[in-house]
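hey can u check if this looks right to u? its 177 residues, i copy pasted from the old doc so theres a chance i mangled smth
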Amino acid sequence: MVGIGQSEAATAGTPGEPFARWPVHAFHPDYGFAWYCTPQRALITQTIVAHGRVAGARVLCDWIDGALREDAAGIDAAGGILLFHDFRSLARYDPDTRTLINDRIKLRKPGYARRSIMVVRPTPIWRMAMHVTDVTFALLRLPPINVMVDMTRAAEELKSFAVDRAAPGWLLGRQSS
């Protein structure tokens, strides 16, 4: 298991801080990186793209749905999955991207997440997107998204987390280069 480290901005081969020392579990060029912390039942992602497109949204949703399907018993025992998304690279997104994400959220069972944390740039478009998603979350009896702008503060939420050196097999199957 490896703890959180420090690094420069994310590139196609290396995640940005605070995940630079974590072994990459999954990478997709349309989105970025993903890790699954089995003991905490947490999916952690970091975007590398500046423009969110439908293809990247599908990658994110597939990773979440894979965790919910493949670790269902563990996630249920933990009271739901913890989702942590580092969206700092995103400056904008296509409207269809937000629509796809909200449509996929609606397909999941009520209460599937115990907590959702998103680190974003504080822009009006993100505030609007989070309000729309929070309405969808409320319909599924999920807690509101905890939106943060300070990654140092957000990373405190993960300070006790450890990521396995090897990705779970179900996540490796979703890796692309």
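The chain has one domain: 26-172.
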